[in-house]
UniProtKB/TrEMBL annotation:
Belongs to the aldo/keto reductase family. This is Diketogulonate reductase-like aldo/keto reductase. The record marks 85 as: Lowers pKa of active site Tyr. Residues 28-202 form the NADP-dependent oxidoreductase domain. GO terms for molecular function: oxidoreductase activity, acting on the CH-OH group of donors, NAD or NADP as acceptor. It holds the Pfam family Aldo_ket_red. InterPro entries: AKR (IPR020471), Aldo/ket_reductase_CS (IPR018170), NAD(P)_OxRdtase_dom_sf (IPR036812), NADP_OxRdtase_dom (IPR023210). Keywords: NADP, Oxidoreductase. Residues 1-25 are annotated as: Disordered. It comes from the Bacteria. The active site is at 60 (proton donor). Substrate binds at residue 118.
């Protein structure tokens, strides 16, 4: 049985206040796999469209492009949120600190707004040390907020028990086919913001599924906008990626161009599309390793 997602707020907030007192925009821009001059142009048009959160990672190999897009855009630094990720190969304490320092050098910034651990890689057993390193980087002013990515409830409790610092965010796979209902309840109890990678579901995006298609027709919007609005009304922060300027603007338009939003019944019907095998590539954090 699907747990009801109602009541859904008719007007989601335009930003999220994190547990450390800082804030993030309600929608971010995913940068994987944007690289090179084409990637810089895509990121620049995203910033021109109004995105203010750029999500990158060491393993995306595009931090330099993110920094260049920021400089070309002319967006003031205090309006920009840059989020990056420490890879599994750098989970040892000193290596994690060096990873953050390397990211800053490639980005051309004096601090990163959000730094997260990319995957827990539990077989190595070093994610707690990596998290300690991020907390130390925050104390040095290299990082504004610390978080994690692809962590389970057990992984979250491990880092909280070890450091006393609750991650500000947990970036996880989340889309209608994998709505992360149980983990979102954990996040709500702990005060962790859910960020959604692959928020539309990539090639598996259920654009033609009845609940999505019907809502798109009823509200006069696209199926992608329906799914992104579903994220906003659930309280998650989606990170859609597109190299197309028109789609970038459409993805951002769900903030204020959606009328009264999805009804509770529409929300529940979309969430009901979820299935146990809904992951895009079987990326179970208990077993998936990414160095």
């Amino acid at each position: 049985m699907t747990t009801s997602t109602s009541p859904a707020p008719a007007t989601p907030p335009t930003e999220h206040t994190l547990n450390d007192g800082t804030s993030l925009p309600a929608v971010g821009f995913g940068t994987y796999p944007l690289k090179g001059e084409d990637g810089i142009r895509a990121m620049t048009t995203a910033l021109e469209a109004g995105y203010r959160l750029l999500d990158t990672a060491v393993n995306y190999e595009n931090e330099a492009e993110v920094g260049e897009a920021f400089r070309r855009s002319g967006v003031p630094r205090d309006e920009l949120v840059v989020q990056t990720k420490v890879p599994g190969r750098d989970h040892a304490y000193d290596r994690a600190v060096a990873s953050v320092e390397g990211s800053l050098e490639r980005l051309g910034l004096d601090h990163v707004d959000v730094a997260v651990i990319h995957w827990p890689n539990p077989s190595r057993g070093l994610y707690v040390e990596a998290y300690r390193a991020l907390v130390a980087c925050r104390e040095r002013g290299l990082v504004r907020s610390v978080g994690v990515s692809n962590f389970t409830e057990a992984h979250l409790r491990d880092v909280i028990d070890a450091t006393g610092v609750v991650p500000a965010v947990n970036q996880v796979e989340m889309h209608p086919l994998f709505p992360q209902e149980a983990l979102r309840r954990v996040h709500e109890r702990l005060g962790v913001l859910t960020e959604a990678w692959s928020p539309l579901g990539k090639r598996s995006a259920p654009f033609g599924a009845d609940p999505v298609a019907a809502a798109a027709e009823a509200h006069g919007v696209t199926p992608a906008q329906v799914i992104l609005r579903w994220h906003l009304q659930l309280g998650s922060l989606p990170l859609p990626k597109s190299g197309d300027a028109e789609r970038q603007r459409a993805n951002l338009d769900v903030l204020d161009g959606f009328g009264e939003g999805l009804t509770a019944e529409e929300m529940d019907a979309i969430t009901a599309l979820g299935r146990p095998d809904g992951r895009l590539f079987g990326g179970d954090p208990e077993t998936h390793e990414e160095m």
